[in-house]
Specification:
CATH superfamily of the largest domain: Glucose Permease (Domain IIA)
Bound molecules: zinc ion
CATH class of the largest domain: Mainly Beta
Helix content: 10-25%
Number of helices: 3
Strand content: 35-45%
CATH topology of the largest domain: Glucose Permease (Domain IIA)
Keywords: Signal
Shape: globular
Protein name: Peptidoglycan DD-metalloendopeptidase family protein
InterPro entries: Cell_wall_metabolism_enzyme (IPR050570), Dup_hybrid_motif (IPR011055), M23ase_b-sheet_dom (IPR016047), Peptidase_M23_N (IPR040487)
Number of domains: 2
Order of helices and strands: HEEEEEEEEHHEEEEEEEEEEEE
Radius of gyration: 19 Å
Largest sheet: 7 strands, antiparallel
Distance between the termini: 28 Å
Organism: Acinetobacter pollinis
CATH architecture of the largest domain: Distorted Sandwich
């Protein structure tokens, strides 16, 4: 009887608190590691990038982004002066072969490459930034636009049979003009009209957690604007290198592009 009471109490505790706001842990390239910390811990880093620290029910956790390029095996997280080894497992990401008619996108000209390099530097500067968070507990994210999506994150891509970087975001197919909303509070830190990504918005959620929205037909915010969860920021489009209208939603944590689905509440 006591056991039963204890169990149901735990269930209530689990569903009624904000515990679900911790992203889902998934030890794979493109995944996330959750490390419980003692109160005294001040600084966590991975490959010289400072790592996000959040509090849930008065307990501290480090939330570490694992880059898509991470080889299978052990990675080391530095927790103050201590090294925590983590075992990274393989994951069956899909393969996608795309035929592109516009050869410019397959073999960009030197001008286009120079443009892309400048744009990539601009985005990397944002990904490697680390701002103070306004939250103590990492907020729960919501989907930025409506639409049925499959597991497109991490897909190995071949354009006209040439292997390219794996897909670093989640594609949500949606009609041009459908509204895109803010998945969690933050500050607009970047607006771009990029060669590959098209019209793009980058939002800083604090502590190196950055979200990215690409291929937009319209941008309705400006750099420096503070945005709230649920607020409209733009419209779905097909700008940049795309085969059809959709929203590309990227999430970056300690400069690692991670699976955005890990930030969403588990499906019931
Ligand atoms: Zn995409």
């Amino acid at each position: 009887m006591h056991k039963l009471i204890a169990l149901s109490f735990l269930t209530i505790l689990y569903t009624n608190t904000s515990f679900a706001a911790l992203p889902e842990s998934s030890l794979r390239p493109g995944g996330i590691a959750i490390i419980p910390l003692t109160d005294q811990v001040k600084h966590v880093s991975y490959e010289d990038h400072r790592v996000l620290i959040t509090e849930e029910n008065n307990k501290k956790y480090a939330v570490v982004g694992i880059p898509l390029s991470t080889p299978i095996g052990t990675i080391n997280i530095k927790v103050d002066q201590e090294i925590i080894p983590l075992d990274i497992q393989s994951y069956p990401y899909a393969e996608q072969h795309i035929k592109l008619k516009d050869q410019h996108f397959v073999e960009p000209s030197s001008d286009q490459l120079a443009r892309y390099k400048t744009e990539a530097q601009e985005q990397n500067l944002i990904y490697t930034s680390f701002s103070q968070s306004k939250w103590k507990t990492l907020p729960q994210f919501i989907t930025p636009t409506q639409g049925k999506f499959t597991n497109s994150f991490g897909r190995k891509r071949f354009f006209n049979n040439e292997e390219r970087a794996p897909h670093s975001g989640l594609d949500i197919p949606a009609p041009i003009g459908q509204k895109v909303i803010v998945p969690a509070d933050g500050t607009v830190v970047g607006i771009g009209h990029y060669f590959f990504n098209g019209n793009t918005i980058l939002i800083d959620h604090g502590q190196g957690l950055i979200s990215m929205f690409c291929h937009l037909s319209q941008i309705e915010v400006h750099k420096g604007q503070v945005v709230k969860q649920g607020e409209e920021i733009g419209k779905v489009g097909k700008t940049g290198r795309v085969t059809g209208p959709h929203l590309h939603w990227g999430m970056s944590l300690n400069d690692a592009r991670v699976d955005p689905q890990l930030f969403l509440a588990p499906k019931k």
